[in-house]
Design a protein that fits this description.
Spore Coat Polysaccharide Biosynthesis Protein SpsA, Chain A, single chain, 9-stranded mixed β-sheet, 2 domains, two-stranded antiparallel ribbon, 10 helices
Length: about 270
């Protein structure tokens, strides 16, 4: 029997941030979801926190993995949800009625759409102050480029229909930073995404994709993915992007962490 939504979270020593995710799930007005957590061998109190909330955690998979994307693939294999949402440890659903507002939309989306997304809030790590909100319509994304690849929604705001994974598709673990990008581009080659301007998640900028020093590695992977799917960024984008990466490399060396987080937000806003 399927549930409307499977929420999937990969954890590794996430004790300091995991409480925010737990509280946002506890307060959902629509409790018709399952939460699958895959832990890669945490040595802090992550597991004990999850076990204290065993009524909220539908499945807890423990053991070594090859990173976040490998963990997600493990969760996909046991997910019962009609739609799957990948929520980072420390990220939150944006409001207590976030899922309740989305369930009617999702009920009508398939089979015309297999990927559905909304809007996402980007928050400062630590204070969790909301810095901006993102989520452009699909038609606007189609004409934009980001980090040497076509613009896409932020992955934590995207619902994936279970049919994608039932036909055997998985996150490509050859990529350490951009397997979510590769999966979305793979799906975009089949069908367009449905955009609905409803908030779904709040994501802090502390993850690996929000770090200035990871931008060059992310760009290297996204260039490889674009080439594999036959996408070639305009020359103007390539020149500007290389300049931004040069600046990001310099700032990652000279700036303190707090300032780097603010600059990372600026880069996220202007990266396309």
């Amino acid at each position: 029997m399927t549930t409307p939504v499977s929420i999937i979270t990969a954890t590794y020593n996430a004790a300091n941030e995991l409480g925010h995710t737990i509280e946002s799930l506890k307060t959902q007005s629509d409790g018709v979801f399952e939460w699958i957590v895959v832990d890669g061998g945490s040595t802090d109190t992550t597991i004990s926190i999850l076990k204290k909330n065993e009524g909220l955690v539908t499945h807890l998979l423990e053991g070594p993995d090859a990173g976040m994307y490998d963990a997600w693939n493990k969760a996909v294999d046991i997910a019962n949800g009609e739609w799957l949402l990948f929520l980072g440890a420390g990220d939150e659903l944006a409001s207590p009625d976030a899922l309740e507002a989305w369930v009617p939309v999702l009920d009508q989306a398939y089979p015309d759409f297999e990927m559905v997304y909304g809007r996402i809030q980007l928050a400062e790590q630590g204070s969790r102050r909301v810095l901006c909100e993102a989520g452009r319509p699909w038609e606007e994304l189609a004409s934009r480029w980001t980090l040497f690849r076509p613009a896409l929604p932020c992955h934590p705001e995207v619902f994936h229909h279970r049919s994608i994974f039932k036909r055997g598709e998985r996150f490509n673990t050859d990529y350490h930073f951009a397997a979510d990008t590769e999966l979305m581009l793979r799906q975009a080659a089949r069908k367009s995404f449905l955009h609905v301007p409803l908030l779904i998640t709040r994501m802090t900028l502390g993850g690996q994709s929000g770090q200035l020093h990871n931008l060059r590695s992310i760009s290297r992977e996204t260039r490889k993915i674009s080439a594999a799917y036959g996408y070639r960024p305009p020359l103007s984008h390539r020149y500007v992007q290389h300049l931004k990466l040069f600046i990001a490399d310099f700032l990652a060396i000279v700036l303190p962490l707090r300032a780097m987080e603010k600059i990372a937000l600026l880069f996220r806003r202007i990266v396309s």
